[in-house]
Specification:
By secondary structure, the protein is α/β, with parallel strands linked by helices. 40% of the residues lie in helices and 19% in strands. The chain has helices spanning 7-14, 31-41, 71-80, 91-94, 107-110, 114-117, 121-136, 148-160, 190-195, 198-210, 216-232, 253-258; strands at residues 2-4, 21-25, 47-51, 85-87, 140-144, 166-170, 236-244, 262-270, 273-280. The strands form 2 sheets. Strands 1-4-3-2-5-6 form a 6-stranded parallel beta sheet, with helices on both faces. Strands 7-8-9 form a 3-stranded antiparallel beta sheet. The protein starts with a strand and ends with a strand. The structure holds pantoate.
């Protein structure tokens, strides 16, 4: 696997092959990321991964500074997973000038849930993903469904800007106890780690109950109860909610009766760590 750090070297390394599959990451890789590489390889084209901790998508009081940077280990893992090329720019290579042009995502998607809890987050994500797509010009790109809202946002961006890249979403990889793999799990103390699967259990219970509801008010009550239960277990939830998969809006009575495809999404803080998860239902 080749490793490049600049745009010029990236373009030179990409040039011999016409079609590439891109796996964008912020590094500190785990089995979930390696699953993305494995999925990219199924497209029968060379795979380029990127590692860049994108300052633009972190709020001023978030974990940008302490986000784990583990490039040497990540590079070994990627090479072992069959990745062909790693693009690992530093900030000067990614943002040689301050990134004054930004992608302003549709607030209908970017202003709710994680977008409401993390103002500016999805503008930062959309901007860096747009830029990575321009730099790499991949034929396809693979993203995990753990960041469900991010995946929807990227699909919409690609559609609205007619970008010639197909977006592939991959199911969340979980630890044996059900916890969704995430780089942020590394922040958890041993006690918190033991408690962390409670988020996924809360989502599963909410999904089971909410799919039997007949009125939106009933769903809201179930969401409130799920929240209170998690609070009683020591969490600080941002949201726990049943939404439509297609647009992440709440279910209407019609949706409940029609069996519209749904997803329960949750974000909650355990100590200093904010975890997110979701389950399609
Ligand atoms: O999902 C992530 O790791 C990041 O949000 C992404 C897509 C690499 C953009 O920085």
């Amino acid at each position: 696997m080749r490793i490049v750090h600049t745009l010029a070297d990236l373009r030179a390394a990409l040039r011999p092959q016409p079609h590439w599959a891109l796996v964008p990451t912020m590094g500190n890789l785990h089995a979930g990321h390696l699953g993305l590489v494995a999925r990219a390889r199924q497209e029968n084209m060379p795979v380029v991964a990127s590692i860049f901790v994108n300052r633009l998508q972190f709020g001023p009081n978030e974990d940008f500074d302490r986000y784990p940077r583990t490039l040497p280990v990540d590079a070994e893992l990627l090479a072992g997973a069959g990745c062909d090329l790693l693009f690992a720019p530093d900030e000067a290579a990614m943002y040689p000038q301050p990134q004054a042009f930004r992608v302003l995502p549709d607030p209908a998607i970017a202003g709710i849930l994680d977008g409401a809890a993390r103002p500016g987050h999805f503008e930062g994500v959309a901007t860096v993903v747009m830029k990575l797509f321009q730099m790499v010009q991949p034929a396809c790109a693979v993203f995990g469904k753990k960041d469900y809202q991010q995946l929807l946002l990227i699909r919409r961006m690609v559609e609205q800007f007619a970008m010639p890249v197909s977006i592939i979403g991959l199911d969340t990889v979980r630890a044996d106890d059900g916890l969704a793999l995430s780089s942020r799990n590394g922040y958890l103390s041993a006690d918190e780690r033991a408690q962390a699967p409670q988020l996924q259990s809360a989502l599963r219970a909410l999904a089971d109950a909410a799919r039997n509801a007949t009125a939106p008010e009933q769903v809201q009550l179930l969401e409130q109860q799920a929240r209170s239960r998690l609070e009683a277990q020591g969490w600080t939830p941002d949201y726990l909610t049943l939404r439509r998969r297609a647009d992440l809006l709440p279910f209407t009575a019609h949706d409940l009766h029609q069996g519209t495809p749904g997803v329960v999404l949750g974000a909650a803080r355990l100590g200093r760590t904010r975890l997110i998860d979701n389950l399609e239902c």
